[in-house]
């Protein structure tokens, strides 16, 4: 039986003249819904929108769906002189990066966390893999935890933040990492322990809602999936599809191990936190702590080990070639952060970075670094 997959991608709404973020989310979403319905929605700020795919059986169909819904978002942006821009943080500022979206949960978050949310302007990619049993899902997350920093390095696409180079490959990861209960999930030995922890965190006010934790891996509370939320949104939809293939293979392998009685490796939380930081700073092709071996290992070597680890599942779903092609692209061009910095290096203009991101998000080109 095929294990279905789905993706959510978040984009900034950027003016094509000034390249700044525009608070036009409500208008753009309303227009886009005329063609794709609820596959488009608003986000935390009015300068963002989210697109999603329906459940897909294979990554080729997923890529087609992503391309179609991105095209619908782009068409809906056109009337306002905007474009959807796939980057983990805004390259240039704009009033849209500060206008809160109209949702009770967003307002509750501001009341609870205050100024910690002042610069919480980030865009992510979320991968959903069908796992109907919540008990199995929370234990499968134990197996995913050691690999999360590698997914950060592979997807890192946020080196600039509102006009400055942060010195990091994924500044989005740094912004998320300063919040309580907003990074890797804790190791748990059962669904009951997981639910006790989320309840305690809600009562401590470190978490808004025990049923909706924002950890980087979680059983989704609304649909029967294990959701992986650790990645910056990639500019190229082919990269999103390949990362989804890797995530599905890893989830399916993890579910198989759970069903065989393996609850997962209890890797050190502090080491995992260090691995996140190193992946966020360096991106691909840097190095970072491997939470399984407790040694600093190049991300290229970690990726080869992950591909070997899940090769039977990649073969089962027909994803070996697409993942191999993605790893070759990383080796040739680096992650999204390197691409952004290469765009800037051509003429030292951040507007060029935004133009390149707009083109790649729309599927109309862009320049890869040599």
TrEMBL record:
Single GO molecular function: ligase activity
Enzyme Commission numbers on file: 6.3.2.2
Transmembrane regions: none
Record's keyword annotation contains Nucleotide-binding: yes
Organism domain of life: Bacteria
Classification via SUPFAM superfamilies: Glutamine synthetase/guanido kinase
Sorted UniProt keywords: ATP-binding, Ligase, Nucleotide-binding
InterPro entries documented for this protein: GCL_type2/YbdK_subfam, GCS2, Gln_synth/guanido_kin_cat_dom, YbdK
Catalytic activities: L-cysteine + L-glutamate + ATP = gamma-L-glutamyl-L-cysteine + ADP + phosphate + H(+)
Protein family membership: Belongs to the glutamate--cysteine ligase type 2 family. YbdK subfamily.
PANTHER family assigned: GLUTAMATE--CYSTEINE LIGASE 2-RELATED
Its biological purpose: ATP-dependent carboxylate-amine ligase which exhibits weak glutamate--cysteine ligase activity.
Record protein name field: Putative glutamate--cysteine ligase 2
Record organism: Streptomyces peucetius
């Amino acid at each position: 039986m095929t294990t279905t997959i789905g993706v959510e991608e978040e984009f900034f709404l950027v003016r094509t003249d000034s390249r700044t973020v525009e608070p036009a989310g409500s208008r753009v979403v309303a227009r886009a819904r005329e063609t794709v319905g609820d596959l488009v929605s608003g986000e935390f700020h009015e300068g963002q929108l989210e697109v999603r795919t329906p459940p897909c059986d294979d990554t080729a169909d997923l890529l087609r769906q992503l391309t179609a819904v991105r095209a619908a978002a782009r068409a809906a942006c056109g009337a306002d002189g905007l474009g959807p821009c796939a980057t983990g943080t805004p390259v240039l500022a704009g009033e849209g990066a500060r206008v809160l979206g109209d949702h009770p949960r967003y307002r509750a978050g501001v009341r609870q966390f205050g100024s910690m949310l002042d610069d919480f302007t980030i865009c992510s990619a979320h991968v959903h893999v069908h796992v109907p049993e919540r008990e199995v899902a929370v234990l499968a997350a134990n197996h995913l935890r050691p690999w999360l920093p590698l997914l950060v390095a592979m997807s890192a696409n946020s080196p600039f933040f509102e006009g400055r180079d942060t010195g990091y490959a994924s500044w989005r990861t740094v912004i998320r990492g300063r919040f309580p209960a907003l990074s890797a999930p804790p190791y748990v030995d059962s669904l009951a322990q997981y639910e006790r922890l989320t309840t305690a965190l809600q009562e401590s006010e470190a978490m808004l809602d025990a049923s909706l934790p924002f950890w980087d891996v979680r059983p989704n509370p609304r649909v029967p999936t294990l959701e992986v939320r650790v990645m910056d949104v990639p500019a190229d939809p082919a990269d999103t599809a390949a990362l989804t293939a890797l995530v599905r293979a890893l989830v399916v392998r993890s579910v198989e191990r759970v069903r065989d009685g393996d609850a997962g490796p209890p890797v050190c939380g502090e080491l995992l936190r260090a691995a996140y930081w190193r992946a966020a700073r360096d991106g691909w092709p840097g190095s970072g702590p491997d939470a399984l071996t407790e040694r600093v290992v190049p991300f290229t070597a970690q990726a080869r080990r992950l591909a070997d680890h899940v090769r039977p599942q990649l073969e089962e779903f027909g994803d070996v070639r697409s993942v191999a092609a993605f790893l070759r692209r990383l080796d040739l061009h680096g992650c999204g952060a390197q691409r952004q910095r290469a765009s800037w290096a051509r003429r030292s203009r951040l507007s060029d970075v935004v133009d390149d991101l707009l083109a790649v998000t729309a599927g109309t080109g862009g320049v890869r670094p040599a």
